[in-house]
Every structure is written in C-alpha cells, then in structure tokens.
Specification:
The complex is a heterodimer of chains A (about 260) and B (about 290).
Chain A lengths: L4 E14 L2 E14 L3 E5 L6 H8 L7 E6 L4 H6 L3 E4 L11 H12 L3 H14 L15 H13 L5 E5 L7 H18 L2 E6 L2 H7 L2 E6 L4 E7 L14 H17 L5
Parallel strand pairs in A: 3-7, 3-8, 5-6, 6-7
Antiparallel strand pairs in A: 1-2, 1-4, 8-9
Helix pairs in contact in A: 3-4, 3-5, 4-5, 7-8
Chain B lengths: L3 H34 L5 H8 L10 H13 L9 H32 L1 H14 L4 H14 L6 H24 L4 H9 L4 H36 L8 H10 L3 H33 L4
Helix pairs in contact in B: 1-2, 3-11, 4-5, 4-7, 4-9, 4-10, 6-7, 7-9, 9-10, 9-11, 10-11
C-alpha cells in the first residue's frame, strides 16, 4: 500500500441544530485514508458514517476540525474532480438513456463530444453494461441501474470513489454479484474507495480497512486492518480468517452500543 | 372500442335525461296556449308540442342538433351567422391567452422556486387573483386597454383568458421544478454544477410531466376565460357573444348551440394537448 494520503480528517466535529435541540453527528473523528485503500464504514443508523462521507464530499460543513482531500479542502477537491459519489439510490434521470445519464457529469464539466462518447463507452464496459446505452432506466433491473450510477461516478476519472450504501436496497444475490464486480473494478483501476454499509460480510469482503462507528455522538470506536489477501473469491467468506475478522467487527459494534436506551 | 363505450354510455344517459326534462320544462307554455284557444290537449299532444317549440325554455336535443347543422354545416364559414366563424374568433383569443398564461405561469414558477422573496410575495397574490370573479375585472381590463390605445377585442379577451389559465400552470410548475429530491440536488453539487446547469439539466426536464398535466387544465381554463371575457364586454363576435345575444333576444337555440360548440371546442383542445403530452413523454423516455 502506498504511503500517499487521499483523505485526512483531524478532530472532526459536526453538530446539527434542529428544532428540538442539537444533535452531535460527529465527534472528534480522526482518520487517514491512503491512496488506493478500500475503507468501509460500518455502524448502526445515526452513527455518522454517511455524515462523514458527506463532509468529505463537501456536502456538509464540519463545525470543528479539518478535512483534507488530496491535500485540498473538500470544496477545492470537488472543483478538482477528485471524487465521484454514489448514493444509495441509483437516481438515474428517467428522461435520459443510460448513456445520457453517464454523460451527465461530462456535459456539466464541459468535455468535448468525442471525449464524452469515448468515456461513456469505456465506463459502461467497466460495469458490464455495454449494449444498454440506448435503454431508459426503467428498462433495467435495480442492480443494473446501480451499476449505471457507478459508471456515472467513474466517468470523469476521479481517483476517489465515495459510496453511500450503494447496494443497500438490492437483494442478496444481486449484492454478491455487485460486490465481486466492485472488487474487480477497484483492483484494476486502483481507486481509493470510501464505502458506507450496514452489512458486516460486505464490509469484511470488500475492504482493506474497516472503520467501526457508534451513535450519540457519532464517533469511531474501532479501526480494523483486514488481513485477507487482495484476491478474494466469494467463497472466502466461509474461511476461518474471514469469520475471525467478522467476529472482531461484530464485537466492535457491540462495544460501541450504549445501554442508556 | 373499450375506451369509447363508457363515454357513449354516459352520453346516452345525458341525452335521455335531457329528453325527459324537456316536457315538464316547456309544458307550461303549451298548456297556457291551448287554454287561451279553448283547446283540449292529450298528453301526447303536449309531448309533441314541447319537443318542437320555437322558443322553448329547454330546447330538445334534436332541435339543438338541427340548429348546429344549420349554423355549422349549412352556413358559409365567413358568414356572421356561422358558428364556425364565431368559434374561430373565440379560438384565436383562447390560443393567445393560453400562450400568454403558460409563459406567465412558467415564468412566475421559476421566480418563486428560485427566490424566497418571490415565493413569499407572489404566491399569496396568485392565489388571491383566482378568488376575484373574472366577470368583475373583465370590463376594467377592456377600459384600461382602450385607454392605452389597444384596439379590437382580441388582446383584452386574451388577457382575461390568460388570467384564468396561468394559475394551474404556475401551481404545477412550482411543484414540478421542486420535484427533484435532495439526492438529485446533491448529485449536481458533487459535479460543481452551476445554478443554470441544475435548472436546464435537472429541474426543467423533471417538471415536464407536471407541465403537460397543467396545460390540459390550462387550455380549458383559457377557453372559459375567453367566453367569460366576451360576456360582459359587449362583444358581438365569438361563442360568448352568441350566448349573450341569444339570451338578450330570447333565443335559447342560439345559446344551446353555442354552448355545445364551446364544449366540443374544449374537448378538441384538451385532446390535442393530451396527444402532445403522450408524444412528448414518450420521446423523453418516460413512457413504458
């Protein structure tokens, strides 16, 4: 693993002011993510894992601490096209074809016509959606739609991919398939991936490191280095090594739980 | 056939009710005439007479049909007696009013969606505008425009028509432009998209289904607006004028045939917009 840092958070605090009091979504979050790492964030609802990703993307402003993305502030990094963001819903535009949806960020960023066509072809191939260019989103299954949304995030060659529970709404079989594909994609593109999930097997299967978080206030309770090799067939999930890591994640999640409620 | 059958069934029911109502509505006059002449009438005599009076309170459907045939098919379309001529006058104002109302509705919706101030100041007035009886302001609009030197009736009628038409478009477009969820807006942010790009690439296309739905209401409202605009303004041309003149000269056949013509015109206009809607949505890929 290279030593260069892609994402660095120092003593991050974020408090939301709401109608009935303030909610501390993040408290004292300090974390470094190296270039080319695959880091999963896991924890119960309200633990701030999504909020952390949104802060990195500049969609939320921290109330304390600092984030650097490729050595820049989140806003600068965004203008520098440092990251692509994948949401839980595919959120494809129904009035655009699959190719049109993937082209959307390229149009906004002002790529030339031929460059757009090249890139659309390339990323659709990457997510195995070649041949679906002229279909409309409703003609695709949920898993295919989510793959198209990943292609959209990859289209402009950001070297960081931020994924907020991208497979959360899909059934387990489709999910397994997409996990395998994502791992392959990460392996041959060398991107840095921040991945939010609810699922322990998913986190262990995909990541080089797993960040365990807990709610009220949202904070990091454990960071687990995943010793599994980079080469991971799906049945690695039945090996003792895999189960051991999963065990540790589960323990971390339990330890983070407060018993006040 | 499956779609036409229910419509025809309702039409048949309306016609049946109409015929049933003709006798009691018109019988008074028949009986009074007979009494004056000292005649005895059987029930069938009364029915036969009520169906064919010259100036019935409620003309029978076949009388209206005959009048429509006379004024639509048998009269030259350039004649002042032709309903096609009057319908054309009304249609022109309707289309101008529809265009004006749609542009104003969309423009105001954009302002309201993008400006908090406009949202708080314009929206309540848009709602209030619809509570004012159009018959009350129509003469004022004519007087003001005449003072400004606008000649003819097409412009004032179009403005009155637009006054009714803009509101459904405004309400739907505000909803349509706001329809993209927070995730869609965030996605545009992650691309550092400008406000203009977010409008043209996200908000506007997302609002198209809402727009067409409101255009169907809007074009019908524009027609009603034009006809109402013709009533209190002393117009002598147009379907509204026919209704008014028929009323003043006690000619119910004229009123009813103008009424039916207006209904047919409205149905045709709404159908055209509906056809454009399905065409546009299909081309945009919404249809499945």
């Amino acid at each position: 693993m290279s030593q260069a840092v892609a994402i660095e958070a120092k003593n991050l605090d974020l408090t939301f002011e709401t109608g009935d009091g303030s909610i501390q979504a993040l408290r004292d979050v300090t974390l470094g993510i190296g270039k080319g790492e695959f880091v999963s964030f896991i924890g119960p609802s309200g633990c701030g894992k999504t909020t952390f990703l949104r802060v990195v993307a500049g969609l939320e402003r921290p109330t304390g601490g600092e984030v650097r993305v490729n050595g820049m502030s989140p806003d600068e990094a965004r203008r520098d096209r440092a990251y692509g963001y994948v949401f839980q819903e595919a959120g494809l535009y129904p009035w655009r074809t699959i190719a049109g949806n993937v082209r959307l960020p390229l149009e906004i960023m002002g790529y030339s016509r031929s460059e757009m066509a090249d890139r659309v072809n390339r990323v659709l191939e990457l997510v195995e959606l070649s041949g679906f260019e002229n279909k409309h989103p409703w003609q695709l299954s949920g898993g295919m739609q989510q793959r198209a949304s990943i292609a959209r995030a990859l289209a402009f060659d950001a070297d960081i991919l931020l994924m907020d529970e991208p497979f959360g709404a899909l059934d387990e079989i489709v999910r397994d398939h997409l996990n395998e594909q994502l791992l392959g994609l990460w392996d041959h593109t060398g991107k840095t991936i921040g991945f939010v999930t609810h699922s322990i097997p998913e986190a262990v299967y995909l990541s080089t490191r797993i960040v365990v978080m807990s709610p009220r206030p949202g904070r990091i309770t454990d960071i687990i280095d995943n010793p599994l090799p980079r080469e991971r067939p799906l049945d690695i999930r039945d090996t003792p090594e895999f189960l051991e890591v999963a065990q540790r994640v589960r323990k971390g999640l339990r330890a983070g739980q407060s018993y006040e409620d | 056939m499956n779609r036409i059958l229910p419509v025809l069934a309702v039409l048949a029911a309306i016609l049946a009710l109409w015929y049933v109502a003709v006798m009691p509505m018109n019988a008074g006059w028949t009986v009074a005439q007979a009494e004056r002449a000292g005649q005895e009438l059987t029930f069938l005599d009364i029915v036969a007479d009520t169906m064919n009076q010259d100036r019935p309170r409620l003309p029978a459907p076949h009388q209206v049909a005959a009048e429509l045939k006379k004024t639509v098919l048998d009269t030259k379309v350039t004649s002042k007696r032709s309903l096609v001529f009057h319908g054309w006058i009304t249609l022109q104002s309707t289309l101008w009013g529809f265009a004006l109302g749609t542009v104003v509705g969309i423009g105001m919706a954009v302002l309201i969606v993008y400006s908090r101030t406009a949202n708080m100041s314009l929206m309540p007035w848009a709602v209030i505008s619809q509570t004012i009886p159009i018959v009350a302001i129509a003469p004022m609009i004519i007087v003001v425009l005449a003072t400004l030197g606008v000649e003819g009736r097409t412009v004032p009628k179009a403005i009155i028509s637009a006054y009714l038409c803009f509101f459904p478009v405004l309400v739907s477009m505000v909803k349509g432009l706001r329809s993209p969820g927070p995730m869609q807006i965030d996605l545009m942010k992650t691309y550092s998209a400008s406000a203009g790009q977010t409008f043209w690439k996200l908000r506007l296309p997302a609002s198209v289904p809402y727009l067409f739905t409101s255009l169907k209401v809007g074009i019908a409202a524009a027609l009603v607006g034009t006809i109402v605009g013709e009533l209190p303004t002393g117009a002598i041309q147009g379907l509204g004028a026919r209704i008014l003149i028929g009323d003043q000269f006690g000619n119910p056949l004229m009123i009813w045939s103008a009424l039916i013509a207006a209904a047919c015109l409205a149905a045709a206009l709404v159908s055209i917009v509906a056809a454009l809607q399905s065409l546009a949505l299909q081309r945009m890929g919404y249809a499945r």
